[in-house]
Amino acid sequence: MKLFLSYLKSHLKLLLMLALFGAVFAVVLALYRAPLEGALYGQLLCLALGLCFLLAGFWRYRQRHRALRRALDRLREGLPSLPEAADELEADYQALLTALEEDRRGIAARAAVDRDRAETFYTAWVHQIKTPMAAMGLLLQGGTPDAALLKGELFRMEKYVDLVLTYQRLGSESTDLVLKACDLDAIIRGAVKEYARLFILKKLTLSFTPTELTVLTDEKWLGFVIGQLLSNALKYTQRGGVSVYAQGQRLVIEDTGVGIPASELPRIFEKSFTGENGRAAERTTGLGLYLCRRACALLGHGIWAESQVGQGTKVILDLSRDHVPAE
Prior knowledge:
single chain, alpha+beta, two-stranded antiparallel sheet, 9 helices, elongated
């Protein structure tokens, strides 16, 4: 009964219009003094035909209602096949539902990829942070621990924790980005001072030529980028050292490390990409350079790398304002 009332309600205007036509028909017959029996017979005949059409329409209405209910029950498995559209308006609604379902599937697929990448990252991060913890345990078991080595391993742990926090901040909808004129040399010296202990432990040289540049940037985020680039240079350099200098408005961080194969160079800033060197040296998250690219995009700086296997790597930061934020 509820369904039938709903059908009548959806056709209420049509029913009222037919009733009005019947009334007009009766008034016209009365004005012409037509026989009452003929008028009633005509009205009853029209009423009978109207009821037939009404019931036939209700039967189709109920069939479509049941088909849509069955489709609704199967909705969790994805958008099921919908009944054939009765008119253009209904076809538009079905097209809208199809587009929404495709968009939902795309969002679900991207969420699944993000979950997989997050799981991979945190698994690798746990492995990384266990390495300095184990090294510290061995040093302590030796009875006469080397304070410098312990401090070095503790510093690595702190950097791994900072990497996780940075990953979360850049993944959020907002960051604490504050652009202002900054002394580039002060930012570089802060990063160099932070990593000085590791340069000493690995017996690597660090050459820093003051740039005397003032750049529009965020001091904290640019410091993170420079620090991460120094960390990468330390990781893949066994002999020689690292040089930091400027070329115009570009900052260059150059090492004498193992270098990057030409086939991998275009992908080093991709998320979770570790490459041949990363897999050979130690299990890495592959997020350091990715986060650098994300941060540079927010700051409006360009970043790219040049490298030759066995001869080292140059990472160039374009700090001019020719670059605008891409994210």
